[in-house]
């Protein structure tokens, strides 16, 4: 029986499969800032990932099919520099970037989507025991028991009529020294719409997304809708600080950007489909790319945010 | 003999956040690690190492009275205990030295080594 259960890992050399690097063009476009683009290359998995940035590319920027300028390389505060322009785009602009490098020429374009505003955010809270521990004194009196807190966010917005709209919702703690509980998007069916049947078939599952989650207006097109997301954690997480601000951001995404972010979320999740892929029983999830001749993404978005203080409903603090 | 074809993310590339885009315009924070996103050109891009094994067995027939038969079977699956790879995994570890660099390698997983078995069949 022990023999049957044994398994063996062995290093394998896949150098024969090494191909020439592909050009990677990354660009997140927003009406809040100038247009920037990152040009780099792919690297073979076993290589060191450093030194993949391409700083001598010719990067041309077109707005609504009109050439506007050649973007300029700028070494930034991050280890990676970016190509910058002087243009801040506006809603409805079609942005096209063409990058010419020693590894080849790549291009892509995307359109700035219509901004959708958050109409209202409401929060409520409830305490619940997790049952993980109860401490009693020698007389049998309970002196401490586990206590969890669940905060329910209800975020209202008005979807645009007659268009296919794509969104990303993000909830974050404004003070990074404070803790953000575990976010769960499973209580709203709009977030479950994109989940594959195999992931939702077991039921009772959570839908994580500490960094945020994508959704579409497929089932709510043109309607006013209230999203529901819960945050939960031990109540002591919420004991400290006179203010407990949460920033709620609703991003309106272009379709390519939505497809890109959704594919990344799927690869990061610990769900049935990803486990099958890890075991070689399903195809790996391909990260969406709209770059012609290479890979990466040119994705446009606009966002609206509201900040709300949890102290409004959690008055006690230390 | 020939190994199966599988799809493997052979290459990696920077995502938006590791390329330096701020979170307010590049909202997702995917792996947030140095090895970035996985990339492959086409499906079934890698062939697993050759699959081969030797199975042997012997059946010993022992006639019984009244036409009944006892059969001992002794066999060995995967006689030379070759751990045939069934998948290729990507292993990522952080080195323990002060540089704390990522150490990345491909490795195969093989299961089912040599498996002897004995069975007895009684026909009546």
Overview of this structure, please?
The complex is a heterodimer of chains A (318) and B (124). Chain A has 318 residues and is mostly beta strands. Chain A has 5 helices and 19 strands. An 11-stranded mixed beta sheet of chain A has the order 9-8-5-6-7-3-2-19-18-14-16, covered by helices on one side. In chain A, strands 10-13-17-15 form a 4-stranded antiparallel beta sheet, with no helix packed on it. Chain A has a two-stranded antiparallel sheet with strand order 11-12. The mean pLDDT of chain B is 87. Chain B has 2 domains: 1-47, no CATH class; 53-124, no CATH class. A 3-stranded antiparallel beta sheet of chain B has the order 5-6-9, with no helix packed on it. In chain B, strand 7 (85-94) and strand 8 form a beta hairpin. Chain B is an all-beta fold and 124 residues long. Chains A and B meet through strand 1, strand 2, strand 3, strand 4 and helix 4 of A and strand 2, strand 3, strand 7 and strand 8 of B. Strand 1 (7-11) of chain A pairs antiparallel with strand 8 of chain B, so a sheet runs across the interface.
């Amino acid at each position: 029986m022990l023999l049957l259960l044994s398994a063996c890992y062995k290093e394998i050399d896949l150098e024969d499969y090494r191909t020439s690097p592909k050009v990677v063009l990354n660009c997140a476009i927003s009406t809040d800032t100038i247009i920037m683009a990152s040009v780099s290359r792919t690297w073979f998995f076993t290589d060191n990932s450093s030194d993949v940035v391409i700083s001598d590319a010719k990067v041309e920027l077109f707005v609504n099919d009109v050439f506007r300028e050649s973007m300029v390389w700028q070494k930034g505060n991050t280890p990676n520099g970016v190509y910058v322009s002087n243009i801040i785009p506006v809603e409805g602009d079609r942005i096209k970037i063409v990058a010419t490098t020693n590894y080849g020429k790549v291009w892509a374009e995307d359109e700035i989507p219509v901004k959708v505003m958050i109409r209202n955010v409401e929060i409520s809270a409830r305490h619940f025991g997790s049952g993980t521990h109860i401490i009693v004194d020698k007389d049998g009196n309970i002196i401490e028991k586990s206590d969890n807190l669940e905060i329910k966010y209800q975020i209202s917005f008005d979807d645009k009529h007659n268009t296919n709209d794509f969104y990303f919702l993000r909830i974050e703690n404004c003070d990074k020294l404070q803790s953000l509980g575990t976010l769960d998007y499973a209580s709203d069916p709009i977030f479950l719409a994109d989940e594959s049947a195999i992931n939702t078939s077991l039921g009772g599952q959570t839908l994580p997304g500490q960094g945020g989650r994508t959704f579409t207006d497929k089932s709510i097109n043109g309607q006013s809708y209230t999203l529901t997301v819960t945050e939960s954690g031990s109540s002591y997480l919420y004991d400290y600080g006179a203010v407990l601000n949460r920033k709620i951001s609703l991003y309106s995404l272009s379709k390519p950007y939505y497809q890109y972010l959704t594919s990344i979320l799927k690869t990061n999740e610990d769900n049935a489909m990803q486990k099958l892929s890890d075991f070689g029983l399903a195809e790996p999830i391909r990260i969406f790319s709209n770059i012609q001749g290479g890979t990466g993404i040119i994705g446009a978005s606009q966002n609206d945010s509201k900040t709300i203080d949890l102290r409004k409903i959690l008055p006690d603090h230390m | 003999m020939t190994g199966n074809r599988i799809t493997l993310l052979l290459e990696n590339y920077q995502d938006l956040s590791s390329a330096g885009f701020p979170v307010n315009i590049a909202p997702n924070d995917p792996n947030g690690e140095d090895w970035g996103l996985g990339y492959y050109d086409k499906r079934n891009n890698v062939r697993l190492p050759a699959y081969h094994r030797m199975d042997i067995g012997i059946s010993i027939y022992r006639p019984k009275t009244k036409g009944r038969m006892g059969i001992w079977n002794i066999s060995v699956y995967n006689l030379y205990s070759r751990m045939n790879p069934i998948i290729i995994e990507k292993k990522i570890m952080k080195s323990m030295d002060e540089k704390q660099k990522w150490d990345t390698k491909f490795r195969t997983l093989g299961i089912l080594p040599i498996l002897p078995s004995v069975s007895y069949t009684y026909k009546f």
